[in-house]
Amino acid sequence: MTLRTVEAPRIASLVPSLTELLVALGLRAQLVARTGFCIHPREALPSVPKVGGTKDVNLAKLQALQPTHVLVNVDENRLETVDALRAWGAHAPEIVVTHPGGPEDNLPLVAQMLAHFGHLPGVADRAAELIVALTDELRATQPTGRAPQTVLYLIWHGPWMTVARDTYLSRMLARIGWQTVPERQGGASGAARYPVVHGNEPWLGDVQQVLLSSEPCSFTEPHVEEARALCPNATVRRVDGELLSWYGPRAVPGLRYLRELSDAGDNRTWTSTSR
After folding, report:
1. pTM for this structure?
2. If pLDDT is split at 50, 70 and 90, which confidence band does 265 have?
3. Between the chain's N and C termini, which has fewer beta carbons within 10 Å?
4. Domain containing 75: what range?
5. What is the mean predicted confidence (pLDDT) over 110-137?
């Protein structure tokens, strides 16, 4: 066993949801690097060095911080980044690859963090509490008794972009019986997971709900009007993209938010102030 193995881990998180999860598990002291998009919890992160974005990591700065573990995600980070980390040879960190495909995958995600860091004080207890909270919310968030809806979830404008059915976002919405369109599987990774909407698709007239995500695009009132023109038979809502797409601890309020969204009624634009 090398000296590096027995030392306290030095963790770099290249994924916003995972950064929040690390802090929730009591691992803030071990966090030595984050991306500029890792902003939650705000009070815990100002002194943690930033190493670029999720797609454009500053590898030289990251290497200088000497992480023992780097947390990545199949959707949010590039394979070239992972390959570059592995090329560090003897100084290469342990790369923890995550890929939660739906809200139920938050449970194995916590277990994955436990496998790496559960030996540290307090982590197992915090993880157990989070697992209980996630299990309760998953049990409470079911499509039974809720009106099914055909939903277009928009994440970008110029061009309009949406989500495939096998994304975390789409599977979150399916928890309340809302099925996203187009009816397309995007595969494990890549651009096909976020298809372009051209505006001439025959199914646009069947859409009942258009959801404008608060991230990564900041949609404004003119976008709401454009979305109404795109899907003339739909209700248009601006929604909290963090609560719907971030996994880890944010899935707990996120699942509650889903139920509130379903119960809000079809005749209002619904936004959340939850942060």
Report:
1. 0.91
2. low
3. N
4. 8-139
5. 98
